[in-house]
Amino acid sequence: MATTSAALVVTSPGATFERSTIERRELRDHDVLIDIRYAGICHSDIHQVRDDWGGTTFPIVPGHEIVGEVAAVGPAVTRHAVGDRVGVGCFVDSCRECEPCKDGEDQYCLRGNVPTYNGRDYDGEITYGGYSQTIVVDENYVLRVPTSLSYEGAAPLLCAGITVYSPLRHWAAGPGKKVAVVGLGGLGHMAVKIAHALGAEVTVLSQTLSKQDEGRRLGADHYYATNDKATFKTLSGTFDLVINTVSANLPIDAYLGLLRLNGTMVNVGAPAEPSEFRVFSLFRGRRSLAGSSIGGIRETQEMLDFCAEHGLAADVEVIGADQVDEAYERVLRSDVRFRFVIDVATLASA
């Protein structure tokens, strides 16, 4: 039998959140029912709620940074048990048959993976995310949350953490490598922590020096302001890897100029408008401009274990269910250090 779950719902672009109920499917053989404890607020939640990228299906329940406890399992589940600490990230199914899926790169499923929210299951049912009390997910897409990680600190790892961990691993950030992180927000602060833990020399590139002390605390070796034109001259040809975490258009050519021979600039932020650059900026130094999308289930578990081993978690501000609209406005003003996390228990009393 399907169950109902309290949730925060937006019914149209620009509307505010309202409390409502949604249906969660009856447990299938391999399904896990999760009582959600905390759900992180990702910038992409804001884009989709406001239909910035187009294609949002309303009503929408956002949230793909989900942590909680297993409340029930289907009869064939072997990976998780009732009471386990678990998490759910950006997708809840994939075809499992294409080459990327078989290689553990299911985030790039050729059929298209099933987003945790604002998507459709392969049977056509709309998916609803973690701004809710429960969620039902196939066991193969449920992550184990190590006991050393707090629920609230772990929640943003399911998107922000894996979004930066994946390119840092793929482009071999580590000892002897110089990594620049553009932006010190939800994604950027985790990029600094993880790159530092991997052993890279880390530089933060932010508009101003206002967060310099925090950047150093997080593990940055250097900190430069991009509103100072001298920065781009000083750092010309310096970095092996530039991770761009901001969701706004940048002067891409200027940032490509920061790369050394064979360096790569990877974009993980997602501006609503197209970006522009000159191909000649790539010719100089055989530079590459790339993008990276979250990570697969296997790599996400690896990331969680890595963060637990190194004592890494997101810096968060915990809010109640009645504060989400305000939190969205604060995110857009960059007024958060560094990630909002909803205490889902407040849904019952908000």
TrEMBL record:
One of its GO terms (molecular function) is alcohol dehydrogenase (NADP+) activity. Its cofactor is Zn(2+). The keyword Oxidoreductase applies. It catalyses: a primary alcohol + NADP(+) = an aldehyde + NADPH + H(+). It comes from the Bacteria. Transmembrane segments: none annotated. Residues 14-342 form the Enoyl reductase (ER) domain. Pfam families: ADH_N, ADH_zinc_N. CDD domains: CAD1 (cd05283). The keyword DNA repair does not apply. Its EC number is 1.1.1.2. Signal peptide: none annotated. Keywords: Metal-binding, Oxidoreductase, Zinc. It is an enzyme of class 1 (oxidoreductase). SUPFAM superfamilies: GroES-like, NAD(P)-binding Rossmann-fold domains. Gene3D superfamilies: Medium-chain alcohol dehydrogenases, catalytic domain, NAD(P)-binding Rossmann-like Domain. PANTHER family: ALDEHYDE REDUCTASE (PTHR42683). Belongs to the zinc-containing alcohol dehydrogenase family. This is alcohol dehydrogenase (NADP(+)). It comes from Frankia canadensis.
